[in-house]
Predict the structure.
Amino acid sequence: MPTAYSDNIKIDFEDVIAEPEGTHSFDGIWKASFTTFTVTKYWFYRLLSAIFGIPMALIWGIYFAILSFLHIWAVVPCIRSYLIEIQCISRVYSICIHTFCDPLFEAIGRMFSSIRATVRKEI
C-alpha cells in the first residue's frame, strides 16, 4: 500500500545510472541494464520483505506497544501529577514574592522616581 513516504523513496533506473545527455551506450546495453536493474530491485525487495517483513513487523509492533503503554500508564500520569503539585507550590511562591519582594521593589522605585536626568549640549 503506497503512502506519501514510499513515494519519496522511489528509486528509478535513471536516478542511479544517469548517463549525460551527450553520451549514451548502445541501445541494447541500455535496455538490458535497465531490465536487469528493475527486475533485480523488484525481486530482491520481495525476497527481503518475505524474509524480514514479518519479524520486523513483530519487532516494531512490540516497540510501539511498549511506547504506547509507557506513555498512557507512566508519562501522562507523571506529568499530570507534577502539574497538580506545582500548582500548589506556585501559589505559595506567588504569596512569598508578593509579601517580601513587592514592598522592597516599590520602595526602591519610589526612591529612584525623584531622580531627573537632563542632557545638555555644550558648544
The CA atoms of residues 109 and 115 lie 10 Å apart. The two ends are 83 Å apart (CA to CA). The chain has three helices and no strands. The longest helix spans residues 27-113.
